[in-house]
Amino acid sequence: MASDAGRDDFIIAIRSAFLKKGTRQKFSLFTLLIISILVLSLEYFKSGPVDTFRSITKDIIFKGSFFISEPFVYIKKNYYNFKEHLQMYEEYTELKNKKYSLDSLKNENKFYKSENKRLKKLIDEKNVYSNEFLLSKVLLDQQSPYLKSVIINKGFYHGIKLGVAVKEKYYFVGKIINVNFLTSRILLASDLNSKIPVIIEPNGINAILSGQGHNDYAGLEFLPKLKKIKEGDVVYTSGVDGIISEAIPIGKVIEKDEKLLVEFFVDYNQLKYVKINK
Questions:
Q1: DSSP letter at 129?
Q2: Which class does domain 134-277 fall in?
Q3: Across residues 193-204, what is the average pLDDT?
């Protein structure tokens, strides 16, 4: 009873739906339903005319679908081709720019290499003279706790003289203690055996700079008892020995462990080139 009532309710609902539609809408819906049923039923008929009709219908649908979709496929294919060509052009432009940059860097590198060779040749193989000094390269550093000296690539063939002052930029390094034909030895101001006459400014106090075996500082000897020396005073060569030129900056006065010392302006650990006074 319950199932019969449910089926009756379903039929009543369908009938109500048709009754609510207009006459034209009812006919259209009914016609579409009949056509759909007929099309689906064709698959179950195996007679000659039906097969022919079904085959022709399928061909028309398939061919029609192919021709309708062909423009869209063509547009899609050309769109992707255009996109691919555009991407290839961008990559080509980028590679071209990189090539130009690489060529520019290569040319710049060649220029710097040739310039470096030219300058190296100028320094290493030619005498660099001025009215005041001769430029020389440090060949060998023989520094030890007991010996502070270096070997340079200039000798008496180049005009080097025994006892003359040696500078790095503007600052005092040491003096020539041995001259060979093509090389010379410099005794650094930091050596224990180094004794250099100096003058301390601004008060003009004379003293002797005494090496301590330390690359950072040296001591002061023969200071006057009533000394007027303070930290920051600058120490120069005095030139009283008649060999070392005067007024070459050496360092500045510092106080360490209640002793007055001279902190060198030169970094002895970084000596590469020096200038020898003529």
A1: B
A2: mainly beta
A3: 92
